[in-house]
Amino acid sequence: MANLTMIQAITEALDQELARDEKVVIFGEDVGKNGGVFRATKGLYDKYGEERISDTPLSESAIGGMAIGMALHGFRPVMEIQFFGFLFEVMDSLAGQMNRTRYRMGATRNLPITVRSPFGGGVHTPEMHADSLEGLMAQTPGIKVVIPSNPSDAKGLLTAAIRDNDPVLFLEHMKLYRSFREEVSEEQYEIELGKANIVQEGSDVTIVAYGYMVREAIKAADELAKDGVSAEIVDLRTVSPLDMETITASVEKTGRLVVVQEAQRQAGVADKVVSEVSQRSILSLEEPIKVVAAPDTVFPFGLAENDWIPGAAEIVEAVNEIK
Q1: Which member of 73, 124, 129, 173 is catalytic?
Q2: 129 belongs to the catalytic site
């Protein structure tokens, strides 16, 4: 076991998959000698060479098209969108092409593409860098959307994403990159995509979260425990497809649900969780479902983002309203 940050766990997963399968290739803006803007590919260019790790022009649409072409010719591309706020430049490749290729070609071809991209607030990035746009892709059939909340999950989920025969969007919250360390197995391992994780068990309320909001949910649960409230935390890990079996089982146990996301109230996947729980387990609910999310405005400039992004205090308040 090694004590790693999330960015180190991501680098290790990439390194191990490059070594395991010669068809794995990585490309994107500045991912070569520079090692990426967050150094996720640090050292990989020197180890594997420019045929496996390559820089691209500043063109997200070209990166997406290149990934589709290489996948159709037997490679396993790991493409990087330098910041997920640049999603719109590559939207046609993601939501108009790679997600439907298996169906279009009668299941005779696979597109084993992994799309890595950082996102998320709290680190004072410039405009259009921090936006939480996962909801747009979660509503796009044919592509899985994965968002880890910790180093160990990041390694196992990224490994599974690269080995998956269909497109996987792998989103990495920037605030999680180096904010804490945890023990991560040095061996290769996969964490099944589409499976949520019970971070901690509880009996009074279910808190569903993903990405950095899992950390805030843990803080909130610690505060609630001081008042005798037992919170169960469900980390979605994969936001499309959702693991509704794990979510509904928790709700049916606790009778109360708070869904937390960093994205605006009208965005993200919180409403999808609320809708599914309402259809499947409404008779198990003892109180109305609460949603903790950012306001329905564009992402603010850096000086205001700490007031805009929800956190543990808002989660505690939501739980207290329904306990």
Answers
A1: 129
A2: yes
